[in-house]
């Protein structure tokens, strides 16, 4: 699996995880995207193939669904698990008399009939799925190349972080989203590299670290945008109050700001969601 950046590791260790801190009911604590570890959980090759193939088949339409018309209720981890380990034809059955069938009906309702049909039409023992302009034979997913799995998981981490940041920002500064939604959206998008907003699957798969994790000469505008976004949140640390001076920006300053921002983000996220956030990982193996 991809490795987390050290600033996140430190933040997870230092965060106060007292359940009494959690402010219940302010956000939907479910997951827009599956937990990355879920994709690699299966030990048996057939199950590994099923999980990977189902995610890759569902991925394009689900990302579009989440980006443009997010469901009112997001999937919980068990719903993701049930969805990913199901042969799609089972989701299309009309029988609702058993508990299992009723669960499948709930999945169909949540993920959308069109998504289920797309997945069902894509799934085949000899079929293939599309991912970042590649065609991947489903049969190869029994024992997928390590680099492919690394990249698939990296993308899920990125997607999870992008949309959890969006949800958390809405919860932390709802007034800014009411008063100036276009400006807030533009600021959020400017944290991430590329021209596709949060839908990075429309870009090319990166081969080096990007955005706030890139080398200082590249990272500056993205880190400044993230600093600016976080600085508007209540109780933002003083290290994030002032704009970053580009002329004196260095690896030391970059690391210092990242450490402060990651710590603040992790603690704030836990205080509202009651769980750790999904965070970016190294793209390089």
Walk me through what this model shows.
- With 285 residues, the chain is mainly α.
- The chain has helices at residues 6-14, 36-40, 45-68, 77-84, 88-91, 99-111, 113-122, 146-172, 174-179, 181-189, 216-231, 251-273; strands at 128-131, 134-137.
- It has one domain (6-273).
- Helix content is 54%, strand content 3%.
- The longest helix has 27 residues, at 146-172.
- The mean pLDDT is 86.
What's this model, at a glance?
With 285 residues, the chain is mainly alpha-helical. The chain is 54% helix and 3% strand. It has one domain (6-273).
Characteristic key phrases:
single chain, 285 residues, mainly alpha, two-stranded antiparallel ribbon, 12 helices, 2 strands, 54% helix, 3% strand
Task: Compile the SSE list and pairings.
Blueprint: H1 6-14, H2 36-40, H3 45-68, H4 77-84, H5 88-91, H6 99-111, H7 113-122, E1 128-131, E2 134-137, H8 146-172, H9 174-179, H10 181-189, H11 216-231, H12 251-273
Antiparallel strand pairs: 1-2
Helix pairs in contact: 1-12, 3-7, 11-12
Shape: globular
Please outline the major beta sheet. Answer: 2 strands, antiparallel
Task: Tally the beta strands.
Answer: 2
Number of helices, where a helix is a run of at least 4 consecutive DSSP H or I residues: 12
Distance between the termini: 9 Å
* Percentage of residues assigned to helices: 40-55%
Question: How many whole angstroms does the radius of gyration measure?
Answer: 20 Å
The helix/strand order is HHHHHHHEEHHHHH
Structural class designation: mainly alpha
Question: Which residue ranges are poorly predicted, with pLDDT under 50 across at least 5 consecutive positions?
Answer: none
Percent of residues in beta strands: under 5%
- Average pLDDT, rounded to a whole number, is 86
| Strand order in the largest sheet | 1-2
As for the number of domains, it is: 1
């Amino acid at each position: 699996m991809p490795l987390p950046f050290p600033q996140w590791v430190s933040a997870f260790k230092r965060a106060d995880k007292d359940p009494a801190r959690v402010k219940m009911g302010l956000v939907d604590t479910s997951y827009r995207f599956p937990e990355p570890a879920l994709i690699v959980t299966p030990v048996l090759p057939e199950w590994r193939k099923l999980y990977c193939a189902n995610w890759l088949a569902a991925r394009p339409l689900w990302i579009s669904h989440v980006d443009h018309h997010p469901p009112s209720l997001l999937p919980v981890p068990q719903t993701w698990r049930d969805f990913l380990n199901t042969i799609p034809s089972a989701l299309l059955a009309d029988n609702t008399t058993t508990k299992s069938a009723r669960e499948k009906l709930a999945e169909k309702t949540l993920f959308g009939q069109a998504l289920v049909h797309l997945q069902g039409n894509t799934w085949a023992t000899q079929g293939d799925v599309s991912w970042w302009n590649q065609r991947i034979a489903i049969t190869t997913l029994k024992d997928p190349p390590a680099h492919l799995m690394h990249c698939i998981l990296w993308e899920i981490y990125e997607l999870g972080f992008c949309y959890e940041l969006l949800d958390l920002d809405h919860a932390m500064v709802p007034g800014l989203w009411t008063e100036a939604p276009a400006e807030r959206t533009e600021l959020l998008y400017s944290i991430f590299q590329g021209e596709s907003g949060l839908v990075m699957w429309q870009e090319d798969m990166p081969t080096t670290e990007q955005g706030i994790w890139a080398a200082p000469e590249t990272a500056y505008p993205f880190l400044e945008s993230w600093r600016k976004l976080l600085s508007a949140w209540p109780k933002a640390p003083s290290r994030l109050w002032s704009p970053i001076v580009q002329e004196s920006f260095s690896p030391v300053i970059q690391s210092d700001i990242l450490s402060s921002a990651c710590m603040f983000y992790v603690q704030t996220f836990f205080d509202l969601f009651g769980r750790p956030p999904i965070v970016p990982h190294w793209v390089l193996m």
